[in-house]
């Protein structure tokens, strides 16, 4: 596998950005991979949570080792602290990641598939929210996974007085009293997509039983299931910590429609 740090210019945001990429390559360790195999490669967009960036998944999990023998590309972008959202202060992070980033990937890495059935998205916490938001916002992603996702839709969330001051949340989402039912509410987006009669993404969600977002996840997942989404929902003892996300990202890889090959001992 190759690891690439790609610095590129975002016309949407008007500034330089960075994405980290894990990319299958021809190698003596994987003689079964041919030029044919390494065309139209499936891709997982892997999203970070609050306080993270494009490097955090690689720094705190085994993601690169896990996919070492699986022909899948991993794209790791950054949304800073903008919640994968077109903010009220004029920075269109959602458009930059949902619309522009796949175009940039197709331009720079043409061996990566642009087909919906081979494009997947996953994330943790804020990134779990971002993954479902992207999956519900169009027909780009066929599978979406949330680990300890901040799925919102709960009138008691975000806990703005505990996490950040209200000015921060209003800068992202606008009037918080109008959040539910807005373009940033994943429950509303899921309902609209269901009403559109377009193909629905497959969903996976995991949440630790001691996680402060546990009730939030239960409510959101019940909503998705009631709409008819195919949802795999799993829980275990656990908290809002990297120890669990490192374990559960392998579960996501097993769940995706790819020929996941756990790493064998290599020299």
Task: Summarize this entry quickly.
By secondary structure, this protein is an alpha/beta fold.
Structure in words:
- The chain is α/β, with parallel strands linked by helices.
- The chain has a single domain (2-255), classed as Rossmann fold.
- Helix content is 32%, strand content 19%.
- It is built from nine helices and eight strands.
- It has helices at 56-60, 63-66, 93-108, 126-136, 160-163, 166-173, 186-195, 214-227, 242-255; strands spanning 2-10, 15-23, 43-47, 73-76, 119-124, 143-147, 202-208, 231-236.
- It has an eight-stranded mixed beta sheet with strand order 1-2-4-3-5-6-7-8, with helices on both faces.
- A hairpin with a 4-residue loop joins strand 1 (2-10) and strand 2.
- Helix 7 packs parallel to helix 8 (214-227).
- It is globular.
- The two termini are 14 Å apart.
- The mean pLDDT is 93.
- It comes from Leuconostoc carnosum (strain JB16).
- This is Tributyrin esterase.
Secondary structure topology:
Layout: E1 2-10, E2 15-23, E3 43-47, H1 56-60, H2 63-66, E4 73-76, H3 93-108, E5 119-124, H4 126-136, E6 143-147, H5 160-163, H6 166-173, H7 186-195, E7 202-208, H8 214-227, E8 231-236, H9 242-255
Parallel strand pairs: 3-4, 3-5, 5-6, 6-7, 7-8
Antiparallel strand pairs: 1-2, 2-4
InterPro entries: AB_hydrolase_fold, Esterase-like, Mycobacterial_A85_antigen
GO molecular function, one term: acyltransferase activity, transferring groups other than amino-acyl groups
Protein name: Tributyrin esterase
């Amino acid at each position: 596998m190759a690891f690439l740090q790609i610095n590129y210019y975002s016309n949407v945001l008007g500034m330089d950005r960075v994405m980290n990429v894990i990319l299958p390559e021809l190698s003596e360790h994987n003689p079964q991979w041919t030029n044919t195999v390494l065309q139209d490669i499936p891709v997982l967009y892997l999203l970070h949570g609050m306080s993270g960036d494009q490097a955090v998944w690689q720094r705190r999990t085994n993601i690169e080792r896990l996919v070492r023998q699986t022909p899948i590309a991993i794209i790791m972008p950054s949304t800073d602290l903008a919640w994968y959202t077109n903010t009220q202060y004029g920075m269109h992070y959602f458009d930059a990641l949902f619309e522009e980033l796949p175009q940039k990937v197709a331009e720079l890495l043409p061996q990566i598939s642009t087909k919906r059935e081979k494009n997947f998205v996953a994330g943790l916490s804020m990134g779990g929210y971002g993954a479902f938001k992207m999956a519900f916002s169009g027909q780009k992603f066929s599978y979406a996974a949330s680990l300890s996702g901040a799925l919102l839709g709960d009138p008691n969330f975000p806990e703005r007085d505990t996490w950040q001051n209200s000015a921060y949340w209003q800068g992202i989402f606008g009037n918080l009293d109008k959040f539910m039912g807005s373009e940033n509410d994943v429950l509303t987006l899921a309902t609209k997509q269901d009403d559109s009669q377009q193909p629905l993404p497959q969903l996976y969600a995991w949440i630790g039983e001691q996680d402060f977002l546990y009730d939030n996840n239960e409510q959101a997942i019940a909503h998705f299931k009631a709409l008819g989404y195919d949802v795999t929902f799993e829980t275990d003892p656990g908290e809002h910590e990297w120890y669990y996300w490192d374990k559960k990202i392998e579960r996501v890889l097993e769940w995706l429609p790819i020929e996941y090959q756990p790493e064998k001992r290599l020299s």
